[in-house]
From TrEMBL:
<keyword id="KW-0560">Oxidoreductase</keyword>
<comment type="subunit">
    <text>Dimer.</text>
</comment>
<dbReference type="Pfam" id="PF07732">
    <property type="entry name" value="Cu-oxidase_3"/>
</dbReference>
<keyword id="KW-0964">Secreted</keyword>
<dbReference type="InterPro" id="IPR002355">
    <property type="entry name" value="Cu_oxidase_Cu_BS"/>
</dbReference>
<dbReference type="InterPro" id="IPR033138">
    <property type="entry name" value="Cu_oxidase_CS"/>
</dbReference>
<keyword id="KW-0732">Signal</keyword>
<feature type="domain" description="Plastocyanin-like">
    <location>
        <begin position="396"/>
        <end position="522"/>
    </location>
</feature>
<feature type="domain" description="Plastocyanin-like">
    <location>
        <begin position="10"/>
        <end position="122"/>
    </location>
</feature>
<dbReference type="InterPro" id="IPR011706">
    <property type="entry name" value="Cu-oxidase_C"/>
</dbReference>
<dbReference type="GO" id="GO:0009615">
    <property type="term" value="P:response to virus"/>
</dbReference>
<comment type="function">
    <text>May be involved in a redox system involving ascorbic acid.</text>
</comment>
<dbReference type="InterPro" id="IPR001117">
    <property type="entry name" value="Cu-oxidase_2nd"/>
</dbReference>
<dbReference type="GO" id="GO:0042542">
    <property type="term" value="P:response to hydrogen peroxide"/>
</dbReference>
<dbReference type="GO" id="GO:0005576">
    <property type="term" value="C:extracellular region"/>
</dbReference>
<dbReference type="InterPro" id="IPR008972">
    <property type="entry name" value="Cupredoxin"/>
</dbReference>
<dbReference type="Pfam" id="PF00394">
    <property type="entry name" value="Cu-oxidase"/>
</dbReference>
Length: 550
């Protein structure tokens, strides 16, 4: 195994991801940031310099469990202090499992400003993937707003509330089209794109006929749930979130923010043509053009536009279609199985609420607020009053009607955390509900830091004790992200085997900003000495200054 060294600088640059120039957060002047490619067992060493003028920054390595390095998880106020301008922080961690990952900002809404990139882990030398392919491609999917993230954040925390609305464009590897279509010549009804800048030209994937390609697809969208399809080609899903799944073949797939997949495609179509790859919006009434990329069968010219129309995204609220995809995802044989029983079950009700007229999201009526001192340090060194020491609720009222808006929408904000017994097995039931408006319940993709979990099942309506007997303990997929469908529930199980403090939250950037997440802590007393640079702020900063490191 190798140690791979990177020297990165985060700064804003001018770029035109969808042919409209804006400030974009970049790494070493690149947007999206550089792709990290490593082998399982390698150590990644990133010296991250904050070259922003007046704000802090952190980077989260999404899907990497950070065994033994919880301070490298890159979550501001949770695992570390935000890195100040001109300062450098070293992220050093092992990538222990092959798979398709990515990294992104985890401070304020910096992810939505463009702070993201791919992290691909190949199998270790001498190991083989359990499927064959000739070459692979990365597709990092995102959505893009023309409004700055400051404008967005202020709007979300203003009274009256100003919702950010739907994104202006969808991006594939940082490139998209705003209010126009690359396929206007065949699609009709849309205006043709004037792709004047290379920043926003069509992304081209060059292939040879009769080969098999692995598409590594990850979504780091701020808001949008996506559907991806390729004209004339079927896709065989083989990986989800860095875990192998039992292969299954589909014409199109949904992908939610925070998820990653690998699919295999075979280039067995008429080789004299090129084909569209399309991503469009699911789960919210779309007001954003699909993004298109070109599968370019060599030796055709890449600029030869496909003659067929791009695949059409399923209707946004066809949830049956989305569910049928999610339900097909099962563990590949050989995947570790869940323990047969859980020691604790936490039910988490997801609701939209109000505090003094400000709109929030809450879990069991607690809307997450982050403390000035990162939990990892304040818990490790047992500092008093660094955060709310109360216990967050284990469940919610038995008469809560998830099909109706909350009868009492008033919520409370708290920095409290779930403390989990080290090495215990925990079930979490994520329960969706009606939002503030009548007849509205939205998709929320939840992401757990520091662990993979098993997805034991999904259901419609309110979860009940009878549903426990339907849990899939035979071949539940291992993942780090999972969706809850409108008015439905999702059950997960995980083993709390990673000493540290971890976020578990909705991966929709504005929803997290509005409090949609919880903090879980386990075995913090076993965390080895935390690098001082990670905790030199707030109360841990004072502790270090007083030379009181226990
Ligand atoms: O958090 C959200 O707020 C709006 C809406 O519910 C209130 O304007 C919306 O669509 C969200 O997802």
């Amino acid at each position: 195994a190798k140690t791979r060294h990177f020297k990165w600088e985060v700064s804003y640059i001018y770029a035109s991801p969808d042919c409209n120039e804006r400030l974009v957060m970049a790494i070493n002047g690149q947007f999206p940031g550089p792709t990290i490619r490593a082998k399982a067992g390698d150590t990644i060493h990133v010296e991250l310099k904050n070259a922003l003028h007046t704000e802090g920054v952190v980077i989260h390595w999404h899907g990497i469990r950070q065994y033994g390095t919880p301070w490298a998880d890159g979550t501001a106020s949770i695992s570390q202090c935000a890195i100040n301008p001109e300062e450098t922080f070293v992220y050093r961690f092992e990538v222990d499992k092959a798979g398709t990952y990515f990294y992104h900002g985890h401070y304020g809404m910096q992810r939505a400003a463009g702070l993201y990139g791919s992290l691909i882990v190949d199998v270790a030398d001498g190991e083989e993937e359990p499927f064959h392919y000739d070459a692979d491609f990365n597709l990092l999917l995102s959505d893009w707003y023309h409004q700055s993230i400051y404008d967005q954040m202020v709007g979300l925390s203003s009274k009256p509330f100003r919702w950010i609305g739907e994104p202006q464009s969808l991006l594939i590897n940082g490139r998209g089209q705003y209010n126009c279509s690359l396929a206007a010549h065949v699609a009709g009804g849309t205006s043709a794109c004037n792709v004047s800048s290379k920043d926003c030209a069509a992304v081209v994937f060059q292939v040879l006929p009769n080969k098999t390609y692995r598409l590594r697809i990850a979504s780091t969208t701020s808001l949008a749930s996506l559907n991806l399809a390729i004209g004339n080609h079927k896709m065989t899903v083989v990986e989800a979130d860095g875990n192998y799944v039992e292969p299954f073949t589909v014409n199109d797939m949904d992908i939610y923010s925070g998820e990653s997949y690998s699919v295999l495609i075979t280039t067995n179509q008429n080789p004299s043509s090129n084909y569209w790859l399309s991503i469009g919006v699911r789960g919210r009434k779309p007001n954003t053009q699909p993004a298109l990329a070109i599968i370019n069968y060599r030796p055709n010219s890449a600029s030869k536009l496909p003659e067929s129309t791009p695949p059409i995204t399923p209707v946004w609220n066809d949830y049956a279609h989305s569910k049928s995809f999610s339900y097909k995802i099962l563990a590949r044989e050989g995947t570790p199985k869940p323990p047969p029983h859980a020691a604790r079950r936490i039910a988490m009700l997801n609701t939209q609420n109000r505090i003094d007229g400000y709109i929030k999201w809450a879990i069991n009526n607690v809307s997450l607020a982050l403390p000035p001192t990162p939990y990892l340090g304040s818990m490790r060194y047992r500092l008093k009053n660094a955060f709310d020491a109360s216990k967050p609720p284990e469940s919610f009222s038995s008469d809560y009607d998830v099909m109706k808006p909350p009868t009492n929408a008033n919520t409370t904000q708290s920095t409290n955390a779930y403390v989990i017994q080290l090495n215990s097995t925990v079930d979490i039931i994520l329960q969706n509900a009606n939002a503030l408006a009548d007849n509205v319940s939205e998709i929320h993709p939840w992401h757990l830091h520091g662990h993979d979990f098993w997805v034991l099942g999904y259901g419609d309506g309110r979860f009940g004790e009878k549903d426990v007997s339907k849990f899939n303990l035979k071949n539940p997929p291992l993942r780090n992200s999972v969706v809850i469908f409108p008015y439905g529930w999702t059950a997960i199980r995980y083993v709390a085997d990673n000493p540290g403090v971890w976020a578990f939250h909705c991966h929709i950037e504005p929803h997290l900003h509005m409090g949609m997440g919880v903090i879980i802590a386990e075995g913090v007393e076993y965390v080895k000495r935390i690098p001082k640079e990670a905790i030199t702020c707030g109360m841990t900063g004072k502790m270090l200054m007083n030379n009181k490191l226990p």
